[in-house]
Backbone:
């Protein structure tokens, strides 16, 4: 008997149709993955099953869970089912826990609200559950004392404390590092087997899907476009969207041959310390060393990748290279001039270097038009172009990134995420810098948009020699767009070399761990249609 | 936690020191000759000289500051020039009106604001929310002295439940509390309106947080999630406002004290300024600053009690 069967589920919020005739069913002990791009309706499908729809949502159809139709169940009965029959794990472990309660109390709460048991008994069972999910810290700790992976274990412990029949995990590993992701996925798979529960896994990451799911459901714009057993579906994709999705996920760009050239950026034995809070009221301030002895160089026209997990010092290094903060040891110079020049920015250096950030939504002032946004770097020039020359520069920058000159008069909210990232690249390119730093620049984009932006970067390299430092936690992207790669761990560069070489024959154990932990898309049997 | 408290205590002591220096400088040094200032332009030189001697103005500034501070620490606030009595006595008479009044008003305002804010937040956009928000809009807009007069008109003059003013002393605590009730309500309502709005918006922020969704996924009802997870987190900004309000309630009661003929600190400072009695002004201002700083210290400790993340930080 299936534990969950969704029949003809349609949903709208106000006048907007969100889901159309979604069908899905799953068995005990089965892992079903719903995948698709943002806005495809994956998460809202999950929330429908939990009965946690946003206000104003109207659902039709049937969601049969454990013999009851969720859509027909009253709110008090739904509260009985949540946490008991079904549990849910969310994407963002950093904010999913109440910061003012201990983790033990939060797990025990699941037990206490559903079962008539003593507080001590509930806490004892919570401690057991935390142990089961592999957490090696005391239940009396608070969430802020835990890492992201540890917090996700707490959330999982909370969701499965009463051994629900169905566990829904909405992007449970998206916010985590690859090695942590691998461990959390292992844990989830183990729990499914041990408790014989169904796991409804929602993720945009096809490599994860291919790795762990028994069955795959592909959604697009609120419809299920394809569903099937993982092996069958991978071997024999029918729908063009599924094909496009997989093609985009394994997208490789064609970089032009790199020309051997003189060094542009020199980073020489750099160390960066951050002050920590004083231990005693008038005591000395201890420091934390975020970067240790970092040395590398980037040549003119060279494309270098930097990989590492969160907290390893990637962002600190970015800020140091950009000259936003001074370093405590060593030197960083661009074309022979130091990048940090005290309080007065050294315009001559700054204009040779631009940056593209991760979040295309928050890196623009929403009240300015595109022409003003992308000409911001002009203040670095001694004689910025004015009048017609300025208009021509704007038009060229927009055309270079695949937008039209007419977009100059629009506001940023009128663009999609991918277009915004193109505008961010246009802003970086407009003063023709020698070096661009891409700081997780494609991490927030959907796979098909990511593929387009990567193509754009390769295209720009073909037009003129472009040197960049590409920072990402995504190994497949790094592998595709860089000539050379550096692996960073705990503030040190532990390995660097030709990208292909590092990926095929990693030397450092940490590099090997990273590569082993990254889920891989299986080799697909036949050529996929291009996007 | 202890380190956090010690850190806050250090900052408290430093604040008090800086405040005392500033008050001393503004009142005793900047006007030039305080004695001449106190006596006005028509004073005779020998009167000024006599006052200078009495105030110890012939000594150096540093000695005077030092004497003043050591005096304060021992409870010796000097002798009032106009009342001819020790300032400490003047203050201790009045603080027993102003301090209970401020605390009374604060408790009333919290008692009104917390349920109102929580009720409004839990019914966001509904008629209850709209009514309460409309009422708080009025509460913020209405001047408290006008409201005080309306209270007197209704409850003292028409209904005769309370007396219209005056303070009988603490000989009979019930009578004393009764006399403070109307002024406390007049002081509390505008504060409650502000506090309710802060409570509501802070709670709404918390209700949008991920951990509320997590709590709901565990099976908590909307109400349980609100009470168990949102309220305590929402208290942090509310505590800040309470700390700020207390200082206002203590010193800002001048107008309300006038309306109700209460012999409080506000009236004392008002009369002393009119009479140019710098000795009283200086001490009362220092006392108010001291209270505010101590209240804020308490608020800091309350933050730490609410939020474990602050306890961890030194």
Residues:
């Amino acid at each position: 008997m299936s534990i969950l069967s969704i029949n003809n589920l349609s949903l709208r919020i106000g006048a907007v149709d969100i889901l159309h005739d979604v069908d899905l069913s799953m068995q005990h002990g089965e892992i079903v993955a719903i995948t698709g791009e943002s806005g495809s309706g994956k998460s809202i499908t999950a929330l429908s099953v939990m009965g946690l729809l946003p206000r104003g949502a109207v659902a039709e159809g049937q969601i049969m869970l454990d013999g009851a139709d969720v859509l027909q169940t009253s709110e008090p009965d739904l509260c009985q089912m949540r946490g008991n029959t079904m549990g849910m794990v969310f994407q963002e472990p950093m904010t999913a826990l109440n910061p003012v309660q201990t983790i033990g109390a939060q797990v025990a709460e699941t037990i206490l609200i559903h079962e008539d048991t003593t507080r001590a008994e509930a806490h004892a069972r919570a401690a057991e559950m935390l142990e089961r999910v592999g957490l090696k810290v005391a239940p009396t700790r608070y969430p802020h004392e835990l890492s992201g992976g540890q917090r996700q274990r707490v959330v999982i412990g909370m969701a499965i404390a009463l051994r629900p029949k169905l566990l829904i995990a909405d992007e449970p590993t998206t916010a985590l590092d690859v090695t942590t992701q691998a461990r959390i996925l292992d844990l989830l798979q183990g729990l499914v087997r041990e408790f014989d529960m169904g796991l409804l896994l929602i993720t945009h990451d096809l490599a994860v899907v291919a790795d762990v799911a028994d069955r795959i459901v592909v959604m697009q714009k609120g419809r299920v476009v394809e569903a099937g057993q993982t092996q069958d579906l991978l071997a024999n994709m029918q729908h063009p969207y599924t094909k496009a999705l997989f093609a985009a996920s394994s997208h490789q760009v064609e970089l032009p041959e790199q020309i051997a050239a003189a060094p542009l950026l020199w980073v020489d034995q750099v160390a960066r310390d951050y002050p920590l809070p004083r231990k005693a009221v008038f005591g000395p301030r201890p420091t934390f060393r975020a970067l240790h002895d970092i040395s590398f160089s980037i040549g003119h026209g060279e494309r270098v990748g930097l990989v590492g997990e969160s907290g390893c010092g990637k962002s600190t290094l970015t800020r140091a290279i950009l000259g936003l903060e001074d370093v405590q040891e060593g030197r960083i110079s661009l074309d022979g001039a130091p990048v940090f020049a005290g309080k007065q920015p050294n315009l001559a250096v700054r204009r040779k270097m631009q940056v593209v950030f991760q979040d295309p939504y928050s890196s623009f002032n929403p009240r300015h038009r595109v022409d003003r946004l992308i000409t911001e770097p002009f203040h670095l020039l001694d004689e910025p172009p004015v009048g017609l020359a300025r208009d021509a520069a704007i038009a060229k920058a927009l055309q270079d990134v695949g937008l039209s000159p007419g977009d100059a008069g629009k506001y940023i909210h009128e663009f999609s995420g991918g277009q915004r990232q193109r505008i961010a690249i246009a802003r970086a390119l407009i003063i023709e810098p020698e070096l661009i730093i891409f700081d997780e620049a494609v991490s927030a984009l959907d796979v098909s948009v990511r593929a387009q932006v990567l193509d754009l970067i390769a295209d720009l390299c073909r037009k003129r020699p472009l040197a960049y430092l590409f920072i990402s936690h995504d190994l497949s992207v790094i592998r595709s767009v860089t000539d050379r790669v550096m692996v960073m761990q705990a503030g040190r560069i532990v390995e660097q070399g030709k990208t292909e070489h590092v990926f095929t024959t990693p030397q450092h154990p940490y590099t090997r761990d990273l590569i082993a932990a990254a889920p891989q898309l299986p080799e697909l049997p036949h050529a996929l249609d291009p996007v | 936690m202890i380190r956090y408290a010690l850190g806050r205590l250090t900052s408290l002591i430093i604040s008090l020191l800086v405040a005392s220096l500033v008050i001393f400088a503004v009142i005793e040094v900047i006007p030039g000759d305080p004695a001449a200032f106190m006596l006005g332009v028509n004073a005779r030189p020998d009167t000024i000289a006599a006052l200078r001697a009495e105030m110890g103005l012939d000594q150096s500034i540093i000695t005077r500051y030092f004497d003043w501070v050591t005096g304060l620490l021992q409870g010796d606030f000097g002798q009032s020039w106009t009342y001819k009595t020790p300032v400490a006595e003047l203050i201790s008479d009045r603080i027993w009106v102003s301090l209970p009044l401020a605390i009374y008003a604060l408790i009333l305002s919290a008692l009104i604001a917390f349920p109102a804010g929580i009720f409004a937040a839990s019914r966001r956009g509904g008629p209850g929310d709209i009514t309460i928000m409309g009422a708080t809009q009025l509460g913020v807009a209405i001047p408290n002295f006008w409201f005080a007069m309306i209270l007197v008109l209704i409850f003292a003059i028409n209904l005769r439940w309370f007396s219209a003013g005056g303070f009988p002393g603490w000989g009979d605590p019930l009578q004393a509390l009764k006399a403070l009730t109307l002024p406390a309500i007049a002081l509390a309502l505008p504060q409650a309106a502000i506090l309710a709005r802060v409570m509501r918006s802070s709670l709404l922020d918390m209700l949008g947080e991920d951990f509320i969704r997590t709590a709901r996924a565990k099976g908590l009802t909307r109400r349980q999630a609100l009470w168990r997870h949102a309220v305590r987190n929402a208290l942090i900004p509310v505590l800040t406002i309470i700390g700020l309000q207390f200082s206002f309630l203590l010193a800002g009661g001048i107008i309300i004290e006038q309306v109700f003929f209460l012999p409080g600190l506000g009236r004392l400072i008002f009369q002393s300024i009119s009479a140019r009695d710098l000795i009283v002004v200086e001490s009362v201002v220092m006392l108010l600053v001291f209270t505010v700083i101590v209240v804020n210290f308490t608020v800091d400790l309350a933050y730490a009690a609410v939020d474990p993340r602050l306890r961890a930080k030194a």
Summary: The two ends of chain B are 8 Å apart (CA to CA). Chain B touches chain A at residues 6-7, 10, 209-211, 213-221, 224, 228-229, 232-233, 306-309, 312-314 (CB under 8 Å).
